[in-house]
Sequence to fold (300 residues):
Amino acid sequence: MLTLTILGNNSALPAHGRNPTAQILQGDNFSALIDCGEGTQWQIKKYKIKTGKLKYIFISHLHGDHYFGLIGLLTSFSLNNRTEVLHIFCPPKLEEILNLQFTVASSHLTYEIYFHPLHGEAEIVNDGNLQVKSFKMNHRIECWGFVFREIKNVRNVLPDKTASFEIPIEFYPKLQQGHDYVTPKGTIIPNEEVTTAAEAGKSYGFCGDTLYEENIVKHISGLDMLYHETTFLKEMADKAKERFHSTTVDAGMIAKKAAVKRLIIGHFSSRYDDLENFLLETQAVFKETSLAIEGTCFKI
Fold:
């Protein structure tokens, strides 16, 4: 199972008690931060997010509301004596920006950071627990979307079957890894007779700032959950196009064309205090829609 916690859901300006974009995606053996707007580390503390398993950070693009919180967070990790390696996947210029900040402050981190510049549509992570692919969005500057897929390798043991073949419990880990069992008399018990295939891993897609862009559908098709920005209500479609953003209707249409199971919408313009119409307008196009309310933890 994957869980997604919303840390920030607003667009360029923090307003109405809402913060710029940031999310935490967690699985059994990993935690990943997706974008890091201003104030993200305060949100991490507020919602009691444990960062011990935080292995990856993904930055979609270099507009400030998506990364201005990063230097503070990275510095705080060091002040708290973090030692675990951290991997940051980001537009190439971000490494230069952060290294300049570290240099002028004479900061010496207690842990290593590995920067992975984003260059094209590619698999950027596959560690046995998580696969991540990147793809291009359509924004004013280079911007990236991400698809996260949980990797499930462990087969399910059938206790009734293993008991009938007198397979010892100590051998179960081998069965889960797909090994056959050989009895003391040399008889081979095929793995398929005593286990079933691993459950399919869950999937999540993050579509950051973008115009309505049907080219992304091939990357997000059939996902269990999709996040898509909705900076404006449908009445401001012209403004959305001018600023390379999406409306409620745009996000709903993308989710519908991609046949995802659930849609989460966010990146709300600060001109809106009440978010109810965002939900109503998007649900009119794609029913299974929820608002990215800060502090909400979605189970995938």
Notes: The two ends are 6 Å apart (CA to CA).
